[in-house]
Amino acid sequence: MSKTVLITGATSGIGKAIAQKLGRNGFRLILCGRRQERLDALQRELGEFTQVHPLNFDVRERDAVQEKIAGLPKEFQTIDILVNNAGNAHGLDLIQDGSLDDWDAMLDINVKGLLYVSKAVLPQMVERKTGHIINIGSTAGKEVYPRGNVYCASKFAVDAINQGMRIDLNAHGIRVGAINPGLVQTEFSEVRFKGDTDKADKVYQGYQPLKPEDVADIVHFVVSRPYHVNIADLVVMSTAQASSTIVKKDL
Ligand code: NDP
Ligand code: 8X3
């Protein structure tokens, strides 16, 4: 019987690549995001490999999160793996110049949204005494960088939640681990810079950043380990990147 995985933020970047990698390897998919047409396209693309159920909700809407997950069709109700991936940076401002809307978005999506989805999925894992949570953190959750302030805070929170989940769920035999990537070329910077594609493209110029598929390969490795093996906390960066602020560029 193939495993069922719920992936948040599956419409783009890292989440989409995880959906493609796991789907092509036979995992049944519950794909979440707000852009319905992208969810539908993925369902069409991966339908020949596995069963796919698109689930459209905003992770900030706690009631919608509960209702959508509780209302899954019978064949998708047992969730073996949850990938908490949805999230973004909004803005790259000095703390004194930061926008309250950006701060709300990052804390509401990256932290509270992750908690709402986890709250909707965890009870069934606790009851079955099995399950696997993968939290997508970031190097921004390990090291603060200039102007990273609130985004870094949100990812430090993911790091703390990852540790807290692992401790509290230990008694129930549930695997919990985080994957913390460095710079990955996705729509991330386009969102951070509010659609300014020139600015976004510059983030990835002059070196080879990670591709979303590189992170997806790791997630596939992590979920394919024997159950007694838990990859608890993994940091992955492009070879060109040494830390949040040190990237070797050959411009
Ligand atoms: P993308 O912008 O490409 O993808 C972000 C995903 O999150 C989209 O699928 C989007 O779906 C979803 N999302 C955003 N807001 C919401 C919301 N309110 N409700 C539901 N879904 C939402 O970025 P990445 O793939 O790069 O980012 C994925 C994760 O990886 C994030 O947690 C990010 O912090 C993390 N990360 C990214 C790195 C990078 O350099 N790119 C490095 C380290 C970590 P939709 O808009 O359809 O709702
Ligand atoms: C995304 C990577 O360095 O832009 O989490 O914060 S970084």
UniProtKB/TrEMBL annotation:
Keywords: Oxidoreductase. GO terms for molecular function: oxidoreductase activity, acting on the CH-OH group of donors, NAD or NADP as acceptor. Belongs to the short-chain dehydrogenases/reductases (SDR) family. This is Oxidoreductase, short chain dehydrogenase/reductase family protein. It comes from Croceitalea dokdonensis DOKDO 023. The lineage of its organism: Bacteria, Pseudomonadati, Bacteroidota, Flavobacteriia, Flavobacteriales.
